């Protein structure tokens, strides 16, 4: 079946089998391999992407169901002026280890902050409860989302913290 | 919060991770991200029965399905002498079943097709006819002489795998005969699974033009896998390149070689095209290395005041259908004999008997440090049983029995030499920080009101860093590890190690060690692991051995480079070598601190201006054979409240004080502890892989085998004391597995402590709410 959708701001047209899952379409047809597969029962959330602004588990959506939709993956987080504050915060607060859950958690965190810019710890834990992480014990993920929330709130007065500048600078060097 | 990578003297600082920039952008490169030209896809056919004869396997319908290139059966592999493969435990394991299957989900055939979907479709068409046999799922029943013999391939016609023992039996019996107090407790450590978020998989790429096999694989021990593969396949080792790319968590699951790997390699050899195999979560849980499954009985002989005399342990170990436990070869029960723990037992005798059952193989995994999880859980649980029996507070009892700090290096009754420890200091910090006295008062008040609150302590000793070559080997290969450091002319460093991280931050922490030794910043040091063509030979990452072994190698390799650098410095400074001093960042002539050269200057000189007769360049390799293991320890305290109506246990607080000697990167150690505590919590309260009497696996996926989310997981508090390892080059001990080793006992001790007023003495994990609910009802609590 022919489908057309917007991925990270760009329009894509593809011909896919109706049974193809969105996660595999993103990974195999589009080469967007940041979206991961961690289970076969929709528990883990490693495949979380935004579908028309909503966090969905792309292993449980058919690619044909995304026809005409706007899809955002982890690869779409970084803007022209560098890493998204959520990405920087995960780095600064050590919110990742093996990195396998990270893309999905970032997308759930992104969706959470869109709908609730100043979440409490309980709201953060609830907001990412569809995402399993085996490495971090969630402590630093919660910290990172709080920190990103503060950064985004502070973005209005446009004063990034010293450490954020440092990390952003070393990030450019490591590319 | 992470610090910049540009600081000099980075050791001991929370340097931000080098790994993160690619992972937060979705630019990691994990196994299933790898796509090669002409790559085919493999899917496995698995047994629906736990125990059955295979009457026949008919691949003809599958072979005619669209896109199918090859179907491999057990008989095909038998013709190549590959139907069985050796295991690290010295047993053998079926690759694809011939004759019969021995566990549900066992590998029966492999289907290779042009696409993932075609391979999966065609796998449904392989026709296998089975004749079911009675399954044996209980290891105690399996050891009954009348039980059906599962492994007809073995000479020994019984389900008994091995008997192993440690300690002095007679001396232990003697102390038990005369002891004023003896306590005894049966304790089961249930079968659980490490379940890394990324399942196992590989891409095998055999190029007939060069005769070289490149094997991308989720591997914690790529060099060992290369050697094993060479020995099994007959391919020369220099023609095998194993690449372990970014690994999405291992937790011990990615140490063994699995049948799927072998089938993908065989398929690539036969077809001359790359073959990818990625297992599903269900396949991962049901067929790859499980953890624990120890049925233990412990007895402690003690004085009336709780001072321990002797420990006696009998264990039945359920190893499944093949003994594939990933142990050093002389240790069929791992390092379980560390079971005397942090306490000064006079004597101890420990026995373990392994049993075959109709279940998947494994045993060693999930932060176990080779069975230390079982040992630490058992002794910490039974010390509480003793405390209750003699009427002494569990913290006070532990203090009475601790090995004193002046007793180190301490010779344990089962033969270990503990390197260092200050157990009382660590426990005191934990007690003070959690407010132990206050908590006990609060508990007394709550008990008076009929409320159920419990406090659980675990003061464990770990043993990690296998290990010294005189004792430790994997299939004959000594358990050293290695580092290779090369300085480029501009002072930038490429360093490679024989270990393989799966998220533990080696790219950052090994850079810290090397930068510290060379007076550089971590930013100047690039760390690589996992490619056997480029990295020096090492035994891999598991059992928290990276810091003890490769960490030692990295420091000593750095010092080897510094020795040469000093000679070049003496040449550049025009000073005698004895007059050149190193201040951690640069060399200077004694008494002339202004006249100095840094490692950057020396690196350049090594390629442009070496003293006459000296070999140009600046690099070194170090293979480190550790003199002993390291023995980190910890004091963990859990506080729980139990809902009498539902049986739900709420972990109100959990404090983990770890002592892993000198710390390389505190931020990373904290992250390791958070993750390990979450596993320990899951094991204590959520995880179990049960089987019904027909051998059906009842929790083969994440609907039934539970992994905690952020909502389930308590908030973790951490702290540390520092008792360096005297034998380690930088005084560092391993730590990654301590939180999983130490925490289950704290949780269970807290729950039993809460239920103690009802007369409850023990409860086996996992402590599901329904189980507590039943215990409450049995003890007359009805609301």
Automatic annotation (TrEMBL), chain A:
Any Pfam family: Fer2
This protein's record includes keyword Iron-sulfur: yes
PROSITE patterns: 2FE2S_FER_2
Pathway: Alkaloid degradation; nicotine degradation
Keyword Iron-sulfur (UniProt): yes
InterPro entries in the record: 2Fe-2S-bd, 2Fe-2S-bd_dom_sf, 2Fe-2S_ferredoxin-like_sf, 2Fe-2S_ferredoxin-type, Beta-grasp_dom_sf, Diverse_Oxidoreductases
Spans annotated as Disordered: 155-175
Name of the protein described by the UniProt record: Carbon-monoxide dehydrogenase small subunit
From TrEMBL, chain B:
Alphabetical list of InterPro entries matching this protein: Ald_Oxase/Xan_DH_a/b, Ald_Oxase/Xan_DH_a/b_sf, Ald_Oxase/xanthine_DH-like, AldOxase/xan_DH_MoCoBD1, AldOxase/xan_DH_MoCoBD2, AldOxase/xan_DH_Mopterin-bd_sf, CO_Mo_DH_lsu
Domain Aldehyde oxidase/xanthine dehydrogenase a/b hammerhead intervals: 25-134
A molecular function GO annotation: iron ion binding
Family annotation (Pfam families): Ald_Xan_dh_C, MoCoBD_1, MoCoBD_2
UniProt keywords, alphabetically: Molybdenum, Oxidoreductase
Cofactor(s) in the UniProt record: Mo-molybdopterin cytosine dinucleotide
PANTHER family linked to this entry: ALDEHYDE OXIDASE 1-RELATED, XANTHINE DEHYDROGENASE
Protein's UniProt name: Carbon-monoxide dehydrogenase large subunit
Organism: Melghirimyces profundicolus
Higher taxonomy: Bacteria, Bacillati, Bacillota, Bacilli, Bacillales
């Amino acid at each position: 079946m022919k489908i057309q959708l917007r991925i990270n701001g760009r329009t894509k047209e593809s011909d896919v089998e109706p049974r193809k899952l969105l996660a595999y379409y993103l990974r195999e047809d589009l080469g967007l391999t940041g979206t991961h597969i961690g289970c076969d029962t929709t528990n883990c959330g490693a495949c979380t992407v935004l579908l028309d602004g909503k966090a969905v588990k792309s292993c449980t959506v058919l690619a044909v169901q995304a026809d005409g939709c706007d899809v955002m993956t982890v690869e779409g987080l970084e803007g022209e002026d560098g890493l998204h504050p959520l990405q920087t915060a995960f780095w600064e607060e050590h919110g990742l280890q093996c990195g396998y859950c990270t893309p999905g958690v970032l997308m759930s965190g992104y969706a959470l902050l869109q709908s609730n810019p100043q979440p409490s710890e309980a709201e953060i834990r609830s907001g990412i409860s569809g995402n399993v992480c085996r490495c971090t014990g969630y402590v630093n993920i919660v910290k990172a989302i709080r920190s990103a929330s503060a950064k985004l709130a502070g973005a209005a007065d446009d004063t990034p913290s010293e450490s954020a500048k440092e990390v952003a600078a070393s990030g450019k060097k490591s590319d | 919060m992470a610090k910049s990578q540009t600081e000099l003297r980075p050791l001991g600082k929370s340097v931000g991770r080098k790994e993160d920039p690619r992972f937060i952008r979705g630019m990691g490169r994990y196994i299933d991200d790898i796509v090669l030209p002409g790559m085919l896809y493999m899917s496995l056919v698995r047994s629906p029965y736990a125990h059955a004869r295979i009457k026949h396997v008919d691949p003809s319908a599958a072979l005619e399905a669209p896109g199918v290139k090859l179907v491999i059966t057990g008989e095909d592999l038998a013709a190549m002498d590959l139907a069985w493969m050796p295991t690290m435990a010295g047993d053998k394991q079926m690759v694809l079943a011939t004759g019969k299957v021995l566990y549900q989900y066992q590998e029966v055939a492999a289907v290779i097709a042009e696409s993932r979907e075609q391979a999966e479709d065609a796998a449904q068409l392989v026709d296998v006819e089975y004749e079911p046999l009675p399954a044996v799922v209980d290891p105690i029943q399996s050891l009954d002489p009348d039980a059906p013999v599962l492994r007809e391939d073995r000479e020994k016609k019984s389900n008994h795998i091995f008997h192993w023992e440690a300690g002095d039996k007679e001396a232990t019996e003697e102390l038990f005969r005369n002891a004023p107090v003896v306590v005894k407790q049966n304790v089961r450590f249930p079968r659980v699974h490490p379940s890394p978020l990324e399942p196992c998989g590989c891409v095998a790429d055999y190029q007939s033009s060069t005769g070289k096999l490149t094997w991308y694989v989720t591997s914690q021990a790529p060099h060992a896998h290369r050697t094993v593969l060479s020995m099994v396949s007959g391919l020369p080792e220099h023609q095998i390149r194993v690449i372990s790319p970014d690994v999405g968590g291992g937790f011990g699951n990615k140490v063994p070689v699995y049948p799927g790997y072998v089938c993908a390699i065989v398929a690539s050899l036969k077809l001359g095209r790359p073959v990818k195999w990625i297992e599903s979560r269900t396949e991962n849980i049901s067929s790859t290395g499980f953890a624990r499954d120890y049925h233990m009985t412990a007895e402690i002989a003690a004085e009336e005041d709780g001072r321990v005399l002797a420990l006696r342990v009998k264990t039945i170990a359920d190893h499944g259908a093949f003994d594939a436990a990933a142990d050093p070869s002389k240790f069929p029960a791992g390092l379980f004999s560390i079971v005397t723990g942090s306490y000064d037992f006079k004597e101890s005798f420990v026995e373990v008997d392994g049993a075959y059952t109709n279940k998947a193989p494994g045993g060693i995994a999930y932060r176990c440090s080779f069975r230390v999880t079982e040992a630490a859980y058992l002794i910490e649980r039974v010390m509480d049983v003793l405390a209750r029996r003699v009427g002494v507070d569990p913290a006070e009892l532990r203090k009475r029995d601790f090995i004193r700090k002046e007793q180190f290096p301490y010779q344990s009754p089962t033969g270990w030499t503990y390197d260092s420890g200050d157990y009382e200091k660590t426990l005191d910090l934990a007690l003070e920080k959690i407010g132990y006295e206050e908590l006990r008062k609060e508990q007394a008040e709550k008990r008076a009101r009929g409320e159920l609150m419990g406090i659980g302590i675990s003061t464990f000793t770990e043993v990690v860093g296998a290990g010294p070559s005189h004792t430790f080997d994997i299939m004959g290969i000594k358990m050293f590890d290695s580092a290779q450091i090369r300085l480029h002319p501009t002072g930038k460093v490429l360093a490679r190690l024989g270990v393989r991280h799966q998220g533990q931050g080696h790219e950052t922490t090994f850079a810290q060690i090397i930068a510290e030794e060379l007076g550089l910043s971590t930013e100047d040091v690039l760390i690589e692991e996992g490619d056997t063509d480029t990295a020096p030979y090492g035994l891999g990452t598991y059992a928290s051995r990276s810091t003890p072994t490769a960490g030692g190698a990295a420091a000593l390799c750095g010092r080897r480079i510094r020795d040469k650098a000093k000679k070049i410095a003496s040449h550049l400074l025009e000073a005698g070598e004895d007059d050149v001093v190193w201040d951690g960042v640069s060399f200077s002539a004694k008494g002339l601190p202004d006249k100095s050269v840094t490692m950057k200057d020396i690196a350049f000189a090594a390629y442009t201006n070496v003293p006459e007769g000296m070999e140009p360049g600046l690099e070194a390799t170090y293979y480190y054979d550790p003199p002993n293991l390291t023995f980190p320890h910890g004091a963990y305290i859990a506080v729980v409240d139990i809902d009498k109506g539902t049986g739900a246990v709420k972990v109100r607080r959990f404090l983990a004080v770890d002592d892993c000697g000198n710390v390389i990167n505190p931020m990373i150690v904290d992250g390791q502890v958070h993750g390990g505590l979450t596993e320990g919590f899951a094991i204590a309260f959520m995880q179990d892989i049960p089987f019904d009497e027909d051998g059906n696996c009842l929790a083969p996926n994440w609907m039934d085998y539970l992994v905690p989310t952020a909502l389930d997981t308590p908030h973790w508090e951490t702290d540390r004391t520092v008792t360096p390892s005297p034998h380690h080059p930088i005084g560092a001990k391993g730590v990654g597995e301590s939180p999983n080793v130490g925490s289950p006992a704290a949780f269970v001790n807290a729950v039993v402590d809460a239920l103690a007023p009802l007369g409850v003495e023990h409860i086996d994990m996992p402590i599901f709410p329904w189980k507590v609910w039943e215990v409450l009802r049995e003890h007359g609590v009805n609301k």
